[in-house]
Amino acid sequence: MFVNQASFEGDKANEAKIIAKMKKTFAELQDVSGLLSSECWKKEKNDVVEYSIVTKWTAKQDFIAWLSREEHVNEHKEMNKQRKQGISEKPSMKKTITQYEEIEIANL
Description:
about 110 residues; alpha+beta
C-alpha cells in the first residue's frame, strides 16, 4: 500500500481558496483505479488553517498514474508559465507533500 498526504496551509483569510482546492482535488479522485480511500483533515491554530488530503493507494504506481494524467500536468505547466510571465500572483498557500510505503515489520 502507498499513502500520500498533500497539505495546504495558509492564513484564515485565504481559507476559501484552500477549500476550493480541496473540493477540486476530491472531485478528481472519483472512480480512480487503485485508489483505496481518500480523506480530508483540518487543523487550525490562531490565524492559520491547514487542510490535508490523505489518499491510500494499492501501489505507488497507481498514485503516479493519477498524478501524471494530462490535465493535471497541463494545469501545473500553465501555472508555472503564468508565474514566469508575472501574470499570476504569489500562491496564497503553502503546499507540503508527505508519502509513505507500507512495509512488513517482520522484514525490518
